[in-house]
Amino acid sequence: MHSTSGPALSFTAVSKRFGDVDALADVTFEVPRGDLFGFLGQNGAGKTTAIRILARMLKPGSGAATLLGHDVWSTPPQRLFRGTGFLIEAPAFLPYFDGLANLMVHARLLTLQDAEAQCSRQLERFGLAAAAKRKVGGYSLGMRQRLCLAQAFLGDPELLVLDEPVNGLDPGGIADVRELLREEQRRGATVFLSSHLLAEVELLCNRVAVIDRGRIVAQGTVEQLVHGGGGVSLRTADDAKARALLAKDGFVVKDGGAIGFRVDGADADVARALAALHRSAIDVYEASRTRRSLEDVYRDVTGT
Known about the structure:
By secondary structure, the protein is of the alpha/beta class. It is built from eleven helices and 14 strands.
């Protein structure tokens, strides 16, 4: 049996080198049970390397990782992976088998009872019921991605580990997967997903970790990371004069687009900026409060 206490997934001081490149450097984080957890980073940041270590496809140079309370490299695979569903990049399917037959192969490897019923249920959930008897070699990119997800969801796993789960999906498909992942969380599952789609992660996840060049550079709840950030977008009678005045007074002033500018800061900073403009007799025509986004956090911590 899996342990029912402790995190659903953890990394402790995990490092992995390829030649002279640190793919992972002392990576440490935990995924609490029941979380929708986003693992963020640009291509090459180390996301897929970390997931391959969880799936025992790569052995770390040092450190330890756990799945549902079991050490990844000292637990027999049959025991380790019971209760965990993986999507790692694009798994290989048998192109001359139909969608149902491909899922049946995986279901039998998992020794699922009522395998055909479970496979049919997942095909229905991911919008592939009508294509269940079509050869996978004729599937579109989006259909293959849905089949990958259906395979990961077989057996209603306690933990889902998903690498870029919405790659190749259209906006409707992305929305469908988003709702299915929320449904999994509601039934008590834990979802760990890597992505570079920051807006999507902000909509979906309650907790994130950001990896950059193999190192964790930020982690916490989405609310903690964006709390207190933002600022105000302004349009004044003389934007150039207003910007110069506020920058001289130490405010963080940024371009606001074609019209106006932005001042970053918490509520008190915004109030002081408006007061400074009033004292200098610079009329404010428009002022709208802006909220710091996960994208802003990501830019700050990665320097991109």
